[in-house]
C-alpha cells in the first residue's frame, strides 16, 4: 500500500459500542464456565489485530462466487466455499466475516448452525471435526459494497462499479475467510455481472459463460495468496494485453473511456518488470497489470497480479512523471515483497513497505537522478520522530481506533527503507544484493518473519547481525548510520509543528 500524498480529512469514528459488546461477552464467559461456552471471536494472536485469523485449521483453497446486481450500492449475492485441513479437533469453526447477511452454512455438505460474535462468523457443525481432517465449509451470504461507518476497506465503489482493497484486515468485509496473511491459499473467483460490464480478478482467466443477460467470469490463481490481496474489478472497463519479459502476460484493466490517456503509462510496465528482475530475480507470478480505478481511495494497493491504482494519479498534471513511475515500481515490487513473500504477522509489515520503498527510491535514483543518499539522509533526520510517533519499524504501534490502515505510517516506509540502507552500508553492496535475491527466492510463495530476515542476512554476511538489527528495527531511537557518523536525527519535539 502507498498513501497518495494529498490532504485528506479524517472521518471521526467511534468504536465504543463494539467495545461494550466485547466487554459483556467476556463477563458472560466467566459466569457460564460450566455450561457450553458462548460463541466468541477468536484470532491467531496478531499483536496489532488480535481477532484476525482463526486457530484450528489451515485453508487450502477458496472458491468465491459473486453476483453483481448492476449497481454498486446494493449487496452482491455470494457463495464462499472454503476447503481447509483441521489442525485441532473443532466443535466450532470460527471464520472472519463482518459485513453481509449469512443465509446458510454447510460443513461437508451437511447444514450447520451459525451465529456471529464480534467480527467472526461462528459455525457449529452437526458433528465435531477431528484434527487432521479435510473440511469444506460453504457459506451462502450477501456482500455489502457500502462501507460501514466504523470499517475501513473491503469493496471500493468506483464510478462505474467496484474494486477491492482489503489490506490490512478487510478481506472479511467482503467474504468469509481466515483473514490473516499467515494463512495463504489458492483462489478461484467467479463473478456474474450483467452484460456490458467486465469482471477481472487475481490470476488468469479460466472461462466466461455468457447468457442473454449476464456473463459469469472465472479467474484462478496459480500461486497461493493472502486474503488481504484479493482483487475483483467490475466495471465498464477494457482489458489491455501486452507481453512482458519471457512472454509474461501483462494485462491492465482500464475504464474504457480512458484507454488513450492511460496508455503512455501502461506501456512502461514491461520495462519496469525487467528492471526489477535485474535486481531480485524472476517475477514471481503468472501475470501482472494495473487496475485503474475511478475512485478516491487515497492509496495504491499491491493486490496480487493486479495492483490497484487511483486513475487520477495518472491524469493529475501536478505529479511529476518520475514520481508516478516510482509509485508504479513501488506496487510492482510488492509482488515480490509482501505478496509472494507474505508477512508472518502485521508487525512484519516493514518487510513489505521498507522493500517497496527501497525499490521505489532505487528506480528514482537510476532512472531520474534522484540520489538515494539524499533521500536517506532526509529520512535519517526524521527517523527519531517517526519512531516516537509510530514505534520502531518492526514493533509498530497499533492502529488508531476505527482507522485500521493507520498502521501505514512513515516508520514502515522510509523509516524501514532507512534500515535497509544501513544494512547495505554495514554488509556492503554485493552481500546486500545477494540477500535480496535470496530472500524472495527462499520464501517464494511463503510466509516469513522479521526473525527469518535477520537469520538470512546473518548467514549471507557470515556473521551474527542480530545486535545490528535490534537497534535498527526495535530501537526507540535511530542508531548511528554506518559510514555516515555525521548524520543526525532531529529530536521529536523539535519537529512538532514543523
Ligand atoms: Zn506499499
TrEMBL record:
CDD domains assigned to the protein according to its UniProt record, in alphabetical order: M1_APN_like
Matching InterPro entries: Aminopeptidase_N-like_N, Aminopeptidase_N-like_N_sf, Peptidase_M1, Peptidase_M1_aminopeptidases, Peptidase_M1_dom, Peptidase_M4/M1_CTD_sf
Record-level Gene Ontology MF annotations: aminopeptidase activity
Region entry Disordered, spans: 479-498
Signal peptide: 1-39
Top-tier EC class: hydrolase
Domain Aminopeptidase N-like N-terminal: 166-227
Domain of life: Bacteria
EC number: 3.4.11.2
Alphabetically ordered keywords of this record: Aminopeptidase, Hydrolase, Metal-binding, Metalloprotease, Protease, Signal, Zinc
Substrates-to-products reaction catalysed: Release of an N-terminal amino acid, Xaa-|-Yaa- from a peptide, amide or arylamide. Xaa is preferably Ala, but may be most amino acids including Pro (slow action). When a terminal hydrophobic residue is followed by a prolyl residue, the two may be released as an intact Xaa-Pro dipeptide
Limits of the Peptidase M1 membrane alanine aminopeptidase domain: 299-472
Cofactor requirements of the protein: Zn(2+)
Protein family: Belongs to the peptidase M1 family.
Protein name according to UniProt: Aminopeptidase N
Amino acid at each position: 500500500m502507498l498513501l497518495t500524498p494529498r490532504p485528506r480529512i479524517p472521518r471521526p469514528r467511534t468504536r465504543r459500542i463494539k467495545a461494550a459488546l466485547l466487554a459483556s461477552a467476556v463477563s458472560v464467559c466467566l459466569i457460564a464456565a460450566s455450561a457450553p461456552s458462548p460463541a466468541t471471536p477468536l484470532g491467531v494472536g496478531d499483536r496489532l489485530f488480535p481477532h484476525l485469523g482463526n486457530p484450528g485449521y489451515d485453508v487450502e483453497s477458496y472458491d468465491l462466487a459473486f453476483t453483481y446486481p448492476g449497481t454498486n450500492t446494493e449487496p452482491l449475492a455470494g457463495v464462499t466455499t472454503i476447503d481447509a485441513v483441521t489442525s485441532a479437533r473443532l466443535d466450532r469453526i470460527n471464520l472472519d466475516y463482518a459485513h453481509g447477511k449469512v443465509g446458510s452454512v454447510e460443513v461437508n455438505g451437511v447444514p450447520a448452525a451459525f451465529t456471529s460474535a464480534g467480527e467472526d462468523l461462528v459455525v457449529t457443525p452437526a458433528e465435531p471435526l477431528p484434527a487432521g481432517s479435510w473440511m469444506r465449509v460453504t457459506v451462502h451470504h450477501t456482500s455489502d459494497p457500502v462501507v460501514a461507518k466504523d470499517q475501513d476497506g473491503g469493496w471500493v465503489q468506483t464510478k462505474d462499479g467496484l474494486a477491492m482493497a482489503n489490506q490490512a484486515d478487510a478481506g472479511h468485509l467482503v467474504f468469509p475467510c481466515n483473514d490473516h496473511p499467515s494463512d495463504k491459499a489458492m483462489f478461484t473467483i467467479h463473478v456474474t455481472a450483467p452484460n456490458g460490464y467486465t469482471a477481472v480478478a487475481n490470476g488468469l482467466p479460466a472461462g466466461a459463460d455468457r447468457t442473454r443477460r449476464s456473463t459469469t467470469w472465472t479467474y484462478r490463481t496459480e500461486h497461493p495468496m493472502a486474503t488481504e490481496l484479493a482483487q475483483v474489478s467490475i466495471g465498464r472497463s477494457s482489458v489491455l494485453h501486452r507481453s512482458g519479459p519471457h512472454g509474461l502476460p501483462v494485462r491492465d484493466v482500464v475504464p474504457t473511456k480512458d484507454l488513450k490517456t492511460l496508455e503512455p503509462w501502461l506501456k512502461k510496465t514491461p520495462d519496469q518488470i525487467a528492471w526489477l528482475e535485474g535486481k531480485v530475480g524472476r517475477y514471481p507470478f503468472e501475470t501482472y497489470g494495473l487496475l485503474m480505478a475511478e475512485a478516491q481511495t487515497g492509496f495504491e494497493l499491491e493486490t496480487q497480479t493486479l495492483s490497484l491504482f487511483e486513475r487520477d494519479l495518472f491524469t493529475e498534471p501536478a505529479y511529476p512523471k518520475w514520481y508516478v513511475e516510482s509509485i508504479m515500481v513501488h506496487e510492482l515490487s510488492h509482488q515480490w515483497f509482501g505478496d509472494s513473500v507474505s508477512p508472518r504477522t502485521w508487525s512484519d509489515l516493514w518487510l513489505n513497505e521498507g522493500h517497496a520503498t527501497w525499490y521505489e527510491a532505487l528506480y528514482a535514483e537510476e532512472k531520474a537522478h534522484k540520489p538515494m543518499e539524499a533521500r536517506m539522509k532526509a529520512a535519517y533526520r526524521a527517523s527519531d520522530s517517526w519512531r516516537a510517533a509510530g514505534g520502531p519499524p518492526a514493533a509498530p504501534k497499533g492502529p488508531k481506533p476505527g482507522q485500521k490502515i493507520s498502521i501505514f505510517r512513515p516508520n514502515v516506509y522510509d523509516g524501514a527503507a532507512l534500515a535497509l540502507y544501513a544494512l547495505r552500508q554495514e554488509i556492503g553492496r554485493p552481500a546486500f544484493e545477494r540477500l535480496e535475491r535470496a530472500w524472495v527466492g527462499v520464501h517464494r510463495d511463503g510466509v516469513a518473519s522479521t526473525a527469518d530476515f535477520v537469520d538470512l542476512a546473518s548467514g549471507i554476511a557470515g556473521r551474527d547481525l542480530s545486535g545490528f538489527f535490534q537497534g535498527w528495527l526495535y530501537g526507540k531511537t535511530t542508531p548511528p548510520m554506518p559510514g555516515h557518523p555525521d548524520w543526525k536525527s532531529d529530536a521529536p519535539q523539535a519537529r512538532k509543528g514543523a
